[in-house]
Amino acid sequence: EVFPQDSADPATMTGKVPLFSPGSAVSSALPGYVALCLALQVHRLASAQFTVTGPDRPVTASLGGEAVLSCHLSPRISAENMAVGWLRSQDSEVVHLYRDGQDQYGEQMLEYRRRTELLRDEITDGRVFLRIRDVRPSDDGQYKCFFQSSVFYKDALLELQVSGLGSDPDISVEGHHDGGIRVVCRSSGWNSQPEAQWRDLQGQILPSASEDISQEANGLFQTEIAILITEESNQKVSCCVRNPQLNQERESAISI
């Protein structure tokens, strides 16, 4: 099994070899070199234990750009002879796998084919980086980074936030309607459902006449929000569309 359950319990790991106390009848009957070999084996297993650490905050990347996810061992030991991998944490499907000294693509998810690269310049120090090219909306979410030696396994969770900052709001005047002028604001290319608002010159939110959010064929979202401008209302307004997850926004204004 490539991806075992977490077996970080030291008692579990060292239990794989017999332990002999110096005062035991068994150890006293063993030749000195056998006892020494057993002691070295136990020490090797104990020293092979490690922890895995990822970024302490979400990694952000822009749609169509690159994301670099880091992960490292503590203490700093070489991972050249370990299995190193990145999984989607929800279903444990393989994003990228390194094993037996080379990348393994047979188990990789189709949507990551030819888009990932494991950067191994610092692997002898127990530090690796996964580069994801051509970032997509579906790349957003949690990942699991794991290291697996011959006797020990440990992983860490991290999060990638895809910054789907959509297009600048496009404002158009659609003519008279219900005693006012109907103005419509449209924006597309957002990786999550955006929030759209009309505001006056002071930044106060104005009531909208209608609002519609839909998902495009490529998985991105578009929004359309309308306002009715009357003689009594403010005649210079702005349309603001924002990504609530990343607190990023785009804004356009119009004067009627």
TrEMBL record:
Could you list this entry's UniProt keywords, alphabetically sorted: Immunoglobulin domain, Membrane, Signal, Transmembrane, Transmembrane helix
Q: Which Pfam families match?
A: C2-set_3, V-set
Cellular location(s)? Membrane
Q: Name one GO biological process term.
A: T cell receptor signaling pathway
- Keyword Signal in the entry? The reply is yes
Report the GO terms under cellular component: external side of plasma membrane
- Sorted alphabetically, which Gene3D superfamilies does this protein's record hold? Immunoglobulins
Listed GO MF terms:
signaling receptor binding
Q: Which PROSITE patterns match?
A: IG_LIKE
Record-annotated Ig-like domain positions: 48-163, 169-255
**PANTHER family attached to this UniProt entry:** BG-LIKE ANTIGEN 1-RELATED, BUTYROPHILIN
Name of protein? Butyrophilin subfamily 1 member A1-like
